[in-house]
């Protein structure tokens, strides 16, 4: 990008030097537009890459990653807050957490940091085909020894600590209200409800009521004499099938405990399993 910027600068310098000459001695308007677009685009990209380069050099010099940089800034913020409150901050469940200043343990010096990140030979740092550090180098890191080896990094953050549960740990899964007897009670209750549901289903499926086919009753009703239209609804129900049946004493099926509103099934609609069972 720097090389391209150099050649673009040479052409822009020539155009700028001849800005007072007649237009026919200079570039065309289209050439000027494209030259301006290339200059702006290359300059923006070069500026962004320069920022990234400076950021990477700073991270290599301090031996920190972006996330570790955020952790350092968060720790510095907690230290400033703790200084105004006697060195303690409130954690979850009302606990008091001691916050003290901790140094980043992996900053071992600028030169050592660069060697750890890019290899031990400075002459090969700018060579793109040089070998990268081995994978083992990313598992064990040297520390500067400023802090006690038992000190944790990142330091404790009261805002990110999980809440402690007051309930005792369960030794077995599927415990309800910490009472093992409730498990068997729920299972037995479920099985009782299941048996009752199956019983009701069997009672419904084993009961079938036959009546005269609907098509025949519909045709009889359609071709009935018009003189019967003035008769009462009760007289129509008498000859409309089993649901309107009455005996000689005037009793209906409902008087004998038969549900007249139940769904009726024709002979042809009964399943083969039901017919074989009968």
TrEMBL record:
Single GO molecular function: transferase activity
Transmembrane intervals: 32-54
Alphabetic keyword roster: Membrane, Transmembrane, Transmembrane helix
Region (Disordered) location: 148-168, 198-260
Domain of life: Eukaryota
Record flagged with keyword Transit peptide: no
Bias type Basic and acidic residues, positions: 218-227, 234-254
Keyword Transmembrane helix listed: yes
The protein's name: Palmitoyltransferase
Organism this protein belongs to: Alectoria fallacina
